[in-house]
Amino acid sequence: MIELLVNGIRPEPHERPFWDGARDHRLLLQRCAACGQLQHYPRSVCRHCLSDALDFVESAGNGVVYSFTVIHRAPLQELRPFAPYTLALVDLDEGVRFTSDVLGDPADVRVGLPVAVDFLDVTDEVTLPVFRPVLDPPRRQP
What we know:
single chain; mainly beta; CATH 2.40.50; 2 domains; 3-stranded antiparallel β-sheet; 8 strands
């Protein structure tokens, strides 16, 4: 059912590396070559300095839940079988805030919960980054 929702995803050229990375089970963040800032969602220019010199770097995919809501009544018929589900703002260790689902029991989700990226293969072409709670997430050394 969720396949119906993602069939409409037609990435713009500046978004393509993100979606290709997700399909390969890699979480990619956009980085500005001019100022070095990371950003997500992918844009055609840097939101910090407006440079168009952008590339992508791989994220470790670790973070914490900043905020969340539990969807009990899905807004689309195709999502109703998945309710209740958790939509969260995740603060990645790299300093980027990411919006995604947190898998598992919604009752277990809380602000500050450590999470790690996982990937949901929806179709052969579309893979969605999602997050799973972790008890002791691996942290990259600075």
